[in-house]
Amino acid sequence: MCSAIRATLLAAFAVCLFPIGTAHAKFSFWPQYGSWWGDHAPFRHNHQHRHTKSESTKENQPQETPKGPLQIIISIADQRVSLYDNGTLAARSSVSTGVRRHPTPLGVFSVIEKERWHRSNIYSGAPMPYMQRITWSGIALHAGELPGYPASHGCIRLTNDFAVRLWHLTKRGARVIIARQDVVPVEITNPHLFVSKPKTAFGSPESLAVADNSNKTAAATQAPLMSNVDKQETADSQGAGPAPSGAALQKVLPICVFVSRKLSRLFVRQGFTPLFDVPVKIQNPQEPLGTHVFTVMGPENEGSAVRWSVVSIPEQSTSADSTKERKVPKQQIVETAPSATLLPDNVNTALDRIEIPQDTVEQISQLLIPGSSLIISDYGISSETRPGTDFIVLTP
Fold this sequence. Notes:
Layout: H1 2-28, H2 53-59, E1 70-75, E2 80-85, E3 88-96, E4 106-110, E5 113-119, E6 127-133, E7 140-143, E8 156-158, H3 160-169, E9 175-179, E10 186-188, H4 219-222, H5 246-252, E11 255-260, E12 265-270, E13 273-279, E14 281-282, E15 291-297, E16 307-313, E17 331-333, H6 345-352, E18 354-355, H7 358-367, E19 373-377, E20 393-395
Parallel strand pairs: 1-9, 7-8, 11-19
Antiparallel strand pairs: 1-2, 2-3, 3-8, 3-17, 4-9, 4-20, 5-6, 6-7, 10-16, 11-12, 12-13, 14-18, 15-16, 15-19
């Protein structure tokens, strides 16, 4: 009799456990929920960060492919991140940025390192899951707690679901812009913007030229520090590998051009590697140009002309208290196109005031592909711009 009762109790206990095991299986395989920005399991600080079989299977799941260059824009006032794919608003979510004593820096950045399970080497090993570094001094985007107002030590905390999806979508070099107020990309045409040559427009790798050796400045000394730059974004940013050849860098990676009014100079990098720099003339050099980020969008139709968008970063003072208690929704799925935004008047004026040597224009035009960018700013190169970074421009 006792044996029968014991067997019955064990059977009932097993039935009760079965749904729990099923739920855990669904937790592990979040891509099955369908919609690319759909919900999935919440962030848990006590994750042991082990590479389990289920985690390995997750990594083999197909991921969404961007339609064009990605731009991640953070608004301090709104405590919000906006993701743009090929110039179109794709998704938005709330963030928590730095407090007054540890403010989040403003300016132009890019993703320079990615690590799935990172711990801070500054703040007692604090967990920073799905970390995307934007400065070597410690600023990054990562999953974390969002109280509804600035609360970090300078990093940009994301909701867990947004952080996971964003981490799988981006690659090293993805543009990140941090501004006081919200800013948006606007399509622009201007005769002073670079255009691709007919033989090289979005096309044949064989025709992409390397900049003249006489114009190279620090590339020879800094290039050896760029190991695995063009491949590391697909791993955990921990594996070492042989440095890619110069030819490979020239063929596949976008370039970034930086024009500094302060220095009256133009700089070019490709794959975080300096290529060359030249002096430029700026009309009325005592007058500000502003800070503007131009990006080559993916072509709408095969063989179409180069499409440019611009994000203009206004410089204005905003009370630190204005964001302290401002509550924002945790995440929104964008279902409609954003309303049209007017191009700031000073953008075209800034382009018209810059005179670039024609041979430099030719060299840049031969290297231009979707994702390439042009940054114009009143400021010089930030000390954050180092080997292994794109140009980092800090704004007040």
